[in-house]
Write a structure and sequence with these properties.
The protein is 31% helix and 18% strand. The protein has a 4-stranded antiparallel sheet. Strands 7-6-11-8 form a 4-stranded mixed sheet. A 4-stranded antiparallel sheet has the order 18-25-22-23.
């Protein structure tokens, strides 16, 4: 079930007056808007507002020709029929957002610096930050300014029932400041909205959120808001205002519905968590020799290793790969310990062995089972269209596997930089090797993923693992995927520039089953994951 779409549909019905029935006895919205206008005029008289603050107020009405008009403060009238997105029920009115509230963004960044911060004392004034809006909590934060500094910034003070909106990072999150909040001002990452009539707060918030997301979609950004619209744009947004009693019925219905949708989301999240755990368990059992039974008639993995060495020798003879001068051979000694021979050196590696494996299995370094050097791709130059694609990190998606449709085109003027083995092949295991949030993600590329049928090369943020033909690529994928959470933590470098070094991958120990058992493991994983995928689709 697409709960996001369901939420948007219900909100759309709500703002169109189609969610709850109208009551002809309700006080019409025109009366509500007139009260707000009178209140604003009184605030000007009382010195709480300046005349300029209401000079752009307008009144929207339907003329005798059944068209919508807007009357301005100077008495001029303009037809705005082309702006009206839909018809309203009787008793509803259109109004500009700017007529309902005061809007103010936080001060310039240079207005509040760390040098101004003071310890928390009874006289200190709190600085509200975007995390207060994002986390819906007025108590968060530990930045304060002196009472003296507050006097120069008091125009940015916020009060109970003010709405604060995050304008940086996670954009568009709203929070209504509660009664009893600490005296404070907003910082540069917030906007405050002060409604003239708090009675419309809930409906206003619902529409504000809906409108921002709709505007983001119209701009082609999906529902991820990139920026709060400029004030001159924001204030001119049209909002449909129902009678105040209908607003209450709408909000009650919406809240009841959303609580049920949230329950569905929570249940789905629980199921998805269980699915992830189930996949991880299947992969873990696979690489430990516990997913399928061993067959004593299987040719042991020691013979398989000889096949791998023979395949690599032939490739060396053909000049396709270079001989590894530090080739690793792992074996079990008479004392039942594991040893590794590299050149003439032999060392005990018992401390590296993570778990016991069946008698017919063997341990080897990941590098030893590959027929292509484990390395990242090259930095590409892109072009609008060509005959070659570039496989980037985004092609190795978090939830949907490999998506070659996201690949861009390579400037073929640099094709000379790409040897034959650089082009991706069926069964290549790919690992995202840079970037917070994507580092360590494992996928497996199949030529059937490449619907355009064009040759494709990895970029410099992707590492390719190509196993010998005598190894099931799905098994290598299962091993790498089972270790994904570990790989995600293996990055080196600064927080935002962590890299998964090829050497880290090369030195990984992989337990190698007999080839026949690999086939059974691959079949079991494919069957299990197919069943799980069907379950996932039923949830969407």
């Amino acid at each position: 079930m697409d709960t996001k779409a369901l939420r948007q549909k219900v909100l759309d019905l709500a703002i169109r007056g189609k969610l709850v029935p109208q009551n002809p006895n309700d006080e019409p919205a025109s009366v509500l808007l007139e009260r707000i206008r009178q209140q604003k005029r009184q605030m000007v008289k009382d010195g709480k507002l300046k005349a300029k603050d209401i000079k752009n107020d307008t009144t929207i009405f339907v003329g005798e020709d059944n068209l919508h008009y807007e009357k301005f403060a100077d008495g001029s009238v303009k037809c705005i029929e082309d702006e009206i997105p839909f018809e309203l029920p009787d008793g509803w009115e259109w109004v500009r957002l700017g007529c309902l509230a005061q809007y103010k963004k936080g001060p310039f960044g240079s207005s509040i610096t760390k040098a101004m911060f003071v310890p928390d004392t009874p006289d200190a004034v709190k600085i509200y930050e975007q995390k207060n809006a994002i986390n819906k909590d007025a108590t968060l934060g530990s930045y304060f300014i002196s009472a003296e500094k507050y006097e120069t910034l008091k125009g940015f003070e916020v009060f109970p029932n003010d709405i604060i909106v995050s304008c940086a990072g996670t954009i568009g999150e709203t929070y209504v400041l509660p009664i009893g909040m600490r005296k404070g001002i907003i910082n540069q990452a917030l906007m405050k909205i002060s409604l003239y009539d708090s009675g419309i707060l809930d409906f206003y918030l619902m529409y504000f959120d809906f409108k921002l997301k709709s505007a983001a979609q119209e701009q082609g950004h999906g529902i991820a808001l990139k920026n709060i619209p400029p004030f001159d744009v924001l204030k001119r947004y049209l909002i449909p205002i129902p009678p105040i009693q209908e607003q209450k019925r709408i909000i009650s219905t919406v809240n009841n519905f959303l609580s049920k949708v949230n329950s569905i989301d929570e249940d789905n999240e629980t199921i998805f968590t269980l699915i992830v755990k189930a996949k991880s368990k299947i992969l873990d059992l696979a690489i430990r020799g516990q997913l399928v039974p061993q067959d004593p008639s299987d040719e042991p993995a020691s013979v398989l290793l000889e096949h791998i060495r023979a395949e690599k020798e032939e490739l060396i003879r053909q000049g396709k790969i270079k001989r590894d001068k530090k080739e690793s051979v792992i074996f079990r000694g008479e004392d039942n310990s594991y040893y590794e021979k590299v050149g003439s050196d032999v060392i005990c590696i018992d401390a590296e062995i993570p778990f016991e494996i069946p008698d017919t299995w063997e341990w080897m370094r990941l590098e030893s089972c590959c027929i292509k050097e484990i390395r990242r791709g090259k930095s590409p130059t892109y072009i609008d269209e060509s005959g070659t694609l570039v496989f980037a990190q985004k092609c190795n998606t978090r939830y949907s596997g490999i998506d070659v449709g996201l690949a861009l085109f390579l400037d073929e003027s640099i094709l000379g930089r790409y040897p034959n083995d650089e082009y991706m092949q069926d069964g290549d295991v790919v690992i995202n090797s840079t970037g917070t949030g994507t580092l360590g993600r494992v996928g497996i590329y199949h030529t059937t993923d490449n619907h355009r049928g064009l040759p494709i090369v990895p970029d410099s943020h992707v590492t390719v693992i190509r196993a010998a033909h005598s190894i099931q690529s799905i098994y290598v994928y299962a091993f790498m995927k089972a270790n994904q959470s570990k790989l995600e933590k293996e990055g080196e470098g600064s927080t935002n520039q962590k890299e998964l070094k090829p050497l880290t991958l090369k030195e990984m120990l992989i337990p190698m089953p007999p080839y026949s058992e690999q086939e059974r493991i691959a079949a079991a994983i494919t069957a299990a994951f197919s069943t799980i995928s069907a379950m996932e689709k039923s949830l969407n």
